[in-house]
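2024-03-11 09:14:02 DEBUG pipeline.ingest accepted 1 chain
2024-03-11 09:14:02 DEBUG pipeline.ingest length=265
2024-03-11 09:14:03 DEBUG pipeline.predict start
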Amino acid sequence: MKNFLAIFVAASAVPLAAQWLNYPTPGVPRTADGKPNLSAPAPRAADGKPDLSGVWDGDHKAPCPPGGCDDNQSVREFLDIGATLKDGLPYKPGMAELAKARRAPPKTDEPITRCLPIGIVERYTHGTYRKIVQIPGLVVILNEYNKSYRQIFTDGRPLPADMQPAWDGYSTGKWEGDTLVVQTAGFRDGIWLDAFGDPMTDAAKITERFRRVDYGHLEIELTVDDSKAYTRPWTVKLYQILMPDTDLIDYICLENEKDIQHMVK
């Protein structure tokens, strides 16, 4: 496990010197000493709804489950999305065995190993940043990993009647008070939910409830309903923390990649 964590940290490290460090993000509330005040009230958009915009990372000080947690909650959920569930994930027959086989070294089928896209769930726990841009009728999530994007339409449109399977599926959202509720379906088969290979199939439907609790903290309550992989829907809560005064940089997995040739024999 230690070797795997070391590989992950090295692979996901971002060259901070290349970022726009110390460039003040406009509009960020600050304390008397000039530091971002992450506990200030959440910002509001022109329509009065919470504005989810910003550069976000997994919160490394997220609340612990009843059984306790280590010092790096976001990395642990990167490995095991069901780590906070008391009884673990409710696998259907054969799914636990599939996940166990996937996590066995050398893990040459892992999407990250092959520089393929990772799913919308795993991105929340990955070590690279995400940037949310919110405009009327649309929320866009820009991902540092492989410089990808995701669209969430909030203009009242329904999900497509005929969905060609897609890496990120198709997402529509609506506001329920101060919570953005997003429904996503139409995934391609075989997506991993975490680095341990917990499965998601093309039958999956995902519900996300985004709540910006204050200026610097975002909670995402995420429910996976996948009748092919799990006996019932299950829900986890993921925590994100704002990263002000910085921005995304290029992170293309295949650029200068030299490891896969040593892993595949």
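2024-03-11 09:14:41 DEBUG pipeline.report The mean pLDDT is 88.
2024-03-11 09:14:41 DEBUG pipeline.predict end
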